[in-house]
Amino acid sequence: MAQHILALAAEEAPERLQAALQSLGEGEVRAPGPGRACGEGCPGAGRAGPCSPCSQESGVLRRLMVYKHCVPLVESGDLHLAKVSEIIGLLMLEARQLPGRALAELATLFVDVIKGGSLSNGKSLELFSTVLTALASSKECLAYGKGELNGEEFKKQLINTLCSSKWDPRSVIHLANMFRDVPLTAEELQFVVEKVLRMFSKLDLQEIPPLVYQLLLLSAKGSKKAVLEGIISFFNQLDKRQKEEQRAPSVDLEVATMPLDQLRHVEGTVILHIVSVINLDQDLGEELIRHLKTEQQKDPCTALCPFSVALLLSVAVKHRLQEQIFDFLKTSIVRSCKDLQFLQGSRFLQDLFPQKYDVTAIILEVVENSAFGWDHVTQGLVDLGFSLMESYEPKKPFGGKVAETSYGLSKTPAQQACRLGASILLETFKVHEPIRSDILEQVLNRVLTKAASPVSHFIDLLSNIVVSAPLVLQNSSSKVTETFDNLSFLPLDTVQGLLRAVQPLLKVSMSVRDALILVLHKAIFSRQLDARKAAVAGFLLLLRNFKVLGSLSSSQCSQAIGATQVSVADVHACYNSAANEAFCLEILGSLRRCLSQQADVRLMLYEGFYDVLRRNSQLASSIMQTLLSQIKQYYLPQPDLLPPLKLEGCIMAQGDQVFLQEPLAHLLSCIQHCLAWYKNTVHLHQGVEDEEEEEEEDVGFQQNFEEMLDSVTRRMIKSELEDFELDKSADFSLSSGVGVKNNIYAILVMGICEVLIEYNFNIGNFSKNKFEDVLGLFTCYNKLSEILKEKAGKNKSILGNKTARSFLSMGFVSTLLTALFRDNAQSHEESLAVLRSSTEFLRYAVSVALQKVQQLEETGQTDGPDGQNPEKMFQNLCRITRVLLWRYTSIPAVVEESGKKKGKSISLLCLEGLLRIFNTMQQLYAARIPQFLQALDITDGDAEEADINVTEKAAFQIRQFQRSLVNQFSSAEDDFNSKETQLLITVLSTLSKLLEPASQQVLHSLLGWGKMCVVAHRCDIPCCKGLLTLLFNLHALYKSPVSLLRELAQDIHACLGDIDQDIEVESRSHFAIVNAKTAAPTICLLVLGQAEKVLEEVDWLIKKLNSLGSDTSEDSSQISNQTQALEKGVILQLGTLLTAYHELVQTALPAGSCVDMLLRSLSKTYAILTSLIKHYKQIVGGRGSLPCVGSNTSLSASLQVKLSGSHLTPQCYSFITYVQVRPKLTKKKEDEAAAISTVMAKVLRETKPIPNLIFAIEQYEKFLIHLSKKSKVNLMQYMKLSTSRDFRINASMLESVLQEHNTEDAENDSTAEQPDENQEPKKKRQRKK
């Protein structure tokens, strides 16, 4: 029969074929022969359709039989794909003709096949999509269960059933593809998307990318947010699981997840799919940004994970959303840094809401992950890095010098963001070789184009790049040489930083070095002074780093860039050391020409020669000979001729103007340091090795220098000021040429004296005669110093009003101080007594130490040898600190006799120096603070490398300064030193930053001392500010200071009185520091300022509460517990703070800043109360009642409202009335009344704080009414409705005015009786606290 039907189909005889088909029984249609199953009869199916009309029941049944047979046949895998496609195409064409019930039956068949897991290749699903589409358009009523549904509803039920059933993981991709062709409602699409997302975890990792692609194409119908959220959440969880396994590897192999490289490659492929779909569907990219912004408000850790950041950066490269994405990322980074900084400043916040995420670490993790072939992310990383560095680069103050912060720690969020940008670029440079040249080119371009603005951050990045890969940079050497062509046009600081940065590259690339030398040779003859100085800086750098054969090792180097960078690539040493000598001598020849140029150029040479010697010892002879020939131009060899130096040759006159031509003191300083180093290092080294005839020449210039310096010393001591044309009657004003010349002479002579002081002390070997020479030189120095100070007091245009930088080196200062104050050797006693006998010399030594520490604190380096060596500076600071600490604690300032001389005492200078050293340590040497504190306790030997408890060491130092402060407060009134007290308080504040907040014992003892000091009755305003600020800072280390604010507010109220003059405030003083002198405005403003910080913390917590309330991604019980803890903290803070405001609004504050700040603070308080009520309004529906903070706490939400309604709002209105009416009540003295009226009018006109406060109160009451209605709790029972501010009658005020009017009428009446003078005044009411 089958052969007959096929023959009829081939003959195209529809009538006969239809008759034959109608004669077939059901069993014959359902069971074809084996040969037909292989596809031989399937071409006839196309003819069977028209011959089985849907108008006949039998035709419909035959069609269904064909469909039911073909679906398993197609999925069996026995047919060729071409045959399968042909069959599915034929069936899809005929499907729309089927009636609704047949479509429903066929669709149910497909659902059963999918639920049974019978799909193999998914080809039949193309037919399923057509069936569902046709079913949706069917208007028939179809039986479903016991009822009937139309086609659309039937389809919905089928999809619901399908998405609720179990899917074979192999068919998920086919099903996702199938649903793209099915018209789906939003609800149906949501079912499908959620089902596909749930299947992610059941698939192999390699199957995820194609499924994601199908899901993204499906998102064109809608549910974009759900698709993106599901994809990001899935890979975020995988990353977290991978990190946990890396921290604690799983023993169970079945539990272990995929390899890391496989995960990263899959993530990269998924990101590429998303980017490609976004390029076709712009709405998907906008939805991505909207979703991440929303999630960031809820949980930043979920929103910004490594996968989502990498996705954003990939989208930003070739998309119009780049600006939005970078703005979002930069805002997130800065917000994260601000939150971290905010948390670090408050122990209260750290306990309530510990920081869970760090955007900086996440972005750097993206850089690390991009090594797994994520080339599509690298350009976004580069753009983000430069965007961060440019958006948050250091700012140049108007008319001022750029503050260098590169040597310090990143403190502000902007600095941290800029540092993050540099880290991104550096790590990307290390990981991705193809983009290295692009990064280097952009960095160099910014160094050149941003010369007018700070570029230190770009130079630091360039330095790190060169150090990381100097050999790799040889390929980009052309870009560096192009940059050298512009050196002459760059600022000197930029040139020096740039040359230091590329220095390792100079050692491995001869072409770069030669290009630099050509540029420097041209610059040295430039007309521009900065170009010449740049040339000198470049040549000195080359001399320091290209060693001549036989030079000492670089371990003796004092330059900061030596140890790390030179060791990177010393390739030239293998083949070029001998040739370097001619090269260096050629450079020295060029530099000798600079000795005839401007003073600034010579100054750079003199300051750089010493470092060259330290790095390149074989150049000693040439450099020393150069210096000798230079000094001979100004040295007078006649032994009896005074003065010994020709100062007139050091200046140059051009018309009426006089300039310094030769910085003679710097020249002598250079000679002195080079000679000392030569004698201690090279000469001894040659003596050990017995090296040859050059010693005679070397000894020649050494002897010349020594004889010259001895002669200059002897004659400088004998010289009088008149010999230098300087005396007290000389003109030192800068308005005349003579005055300028005298100023230059004075500075030169003082510098020469200081250089000779250091020289003679070093060679003296504790000889009494040498120390007498030192004191003689100081006498000359001191005379000139006093004259300049005296003239500066009379004339502000004299150089003496700015203390000139000392020529003493930092190392010598530490040696000198140790000898003066701590040297107890018997053999040194007689000679040191000469110096110790001069109080002025002792004060001078400590003053120079203070100046050096200040320079180090401000610039990160000091003048003189080893000034740029951090290790040497650290050692010198430790030595100086030990001496200053011993001197201050051993000899108090009260005991010290300062005599009639004006100026600070030595003890006060020591204390100021200690303060600067503690600040410098925390800025520059934060990592070495343990060794620093250990060094203060160890006088011999280095600090041990054992575990050092910083808190214990700092607490020990704190106790020493505490005793000094207690002595200040307990001393007689005449002995009280306000300046010393302020310094002590600042020192204690600085040291308190070193304490570990967790060490409760130290903090409790410290707080107990703080309260004891605050009880001190004698304290001026500056000390009062310092003490309270210190106390607030200590409170912030372990708890909130709200209780302290309440006590201070009560004291202020008791001290200043009540706004109602008839009420007498009960005096209950907590702190004696609060008195009529300090209560207002000093303490009041401090209390309000601290209250502002508490309000900021509460506001921050409420925002976190709102984010937790809207977050549903985590465990609900965990969120509930955290929410309750935050609510408790907010309510307790606000409740205590309201009691403090309750006291302040009843205080008779003087007009001015206190009133203005209190009104502003109250407005902010009510705004925060309103935010809290809004939060409760959002969550009250879920809880069904107002939240309570717990049974152990009396405050709850309702009590909070009650407290604000009874203790704050009525008093606020009374205070407003007091502020507005007070000027009218104090008109007894017209001048005073006019002044107060002017002040109040200005406050009311400019700031308008009162209307803002009233508006804030009314907004608070408005939302209270809304919350009452929603929670069905009458919260307004605690609130008294506000009086209309437009029309109010103050009864007491009206009564007083009427009384005054009646009194005036009585006085006008001639028959009025005189009042009784003995009448008792009205008794005051006492306000209960």
Automatic annotation (TrEMBL):
<feature type="domain" description="FANCI solenoid 2">
    <location>
        <begin position="377"/>
        <end position="540"/>
    </location>
</feature>
<dbReference type="Pfam" id="PF14675">
    <property type="entry name" value="FANCI_S1"/>
</dbReference>
<feature type="domain" description="FANCI solenoid 1">
    <location>
        <begin position="62"/>
        <end position="278"/>
    </location>
</feature>
<feature type="domain" description="FANCI solenoid 4">
    <location>
        <begin position="1044"/>
        <end position="1295"/>
    </location>
</feature>
<dbReference type="InterPro" id="IPR029314">
    <property type="entry name" value="FANCI_S4"/>
</dbReference>
<dbReference type="Pfam" id="PF14680">
    <property type="entry name" value="FANCI_HD2"/>
</dbReference>
<dbReference type="InterPro" id="IPR026171">
    <property type="entry name" value="FANCI"/>
</dbReference>
<dbReference type="InterPro" id="IPR029315">
    <property type="entry name" value="FANCI_S2"/>
</dbReference>
<feature type="domain" description="FANCI helical">
    <location>
        <begin position="283"/>
        <end position="369"/>
    </location>
</feature>
<protein>
    <submittedName>
        <fullName>FA complementation group I</fullName>
    </submittedName>
</protein>
<dbReference type="Pfam" id="PF14679">
    <property type="entry name" value="FANCI_HD1"/>
</dbReference>
<feature type="domain" description="FANCI helical">
    <location>
        <begin position="554"/>
        <end position="789"/>
    </location>
</feature>
<dbReference type="GO" id="GO:0070182">
    <property type="term" value="F:DNA polymerase binding"/>
</dbReference>
<dbReference type="InterPro" id="IPR029312">
    <property type="entry name" value="FANCI_HD2"/>
</dbReference>
<feature type="compositionally biased region" description="Acidic residues">
    <location>
        <begin position="1305"/>
        <end position="1318"/>
    </location>
</feature>
<feature type="domain" description="FANCI solenoid 3">
    <location>
        <begin position="807"/>
        <end position="1031"/>
    </location>
</feature>
<feature type="region of interest" description="Disordered">
    <location>
        <begin position="1298"/>
        <end position="1329"/>
    </location>
</feature>
<dbReference type="InterPro" id="IPR029308">
    <property type="entry name" value="FANCI_S1"/>
</dbReference>
<dbReference type="InterPro" id="IPR029310">
    <property type="entry name" value="FANCI_HD1"/>
</dbReference>
<dbReference type="GO" id="GO:0006281">
    <property type="term" value="P:DNA repair"/>
</dbReference>
<dbReference type="InterPro" id="IPR029313">
    <property type="entry name" value="FANCI_S3"/>
</dbReference>
<dbReference type="Pfam" id="PF14677">
    <property type="entry name" value="FANCI_S3"/>
</dbReference>
<dbReference type="Pfam" id="PF14676">
    <property type="entry name" value="FANCI_S2"/>
</dbReference>
<dbReference type="Pfam" id="PF14678">
    <property type="entry name" value="FANCI_S4"/>
</dbReference>
